[in-house]
Amino acid sequence: MLGLNIFRLIGDLFQILFIPFKWLRLTVAKGTAGWWTSNTINWLFLLVLLVLLGYWMSQSLKFKREGTEDRA
Q: Is the pTM of this model over 0.90?
């Protein structure tokens, strides 16, 4: 029973997290949201990805300079 509840909780969580995408899908189907709305979301995801990549690379460079990147 516990395992089933965990999977139901995960399913409910994703139902909540995907509400903006459901809204976007419905508005694009109606024709009220167009190219700009769809691509703005893509650009936001790309911006987040680039920021995280920059942070990761800066941390990697910091550890490389300290000489601690490959210690086990």
A: no
The whole-angstrom separation of Cα 61 and Cα 53 is: 12
Residue 26 host element (H or E): helix 19-30
Q: Which of 63, 23, 59, 58 is nearest to 41 (CA)?
A: 23
Q: Round to whole Å and give the CA distance between 33 and 31.
A: 6
pLDDT tens-digit readout, 4-59: 899 999 999 999 989 888 887 777 767 666 677 778 888 999 999 999 999 999 99
Cα→Cα distances 38→22, 23, 43, 44, Å: 12, 11, 9, 10
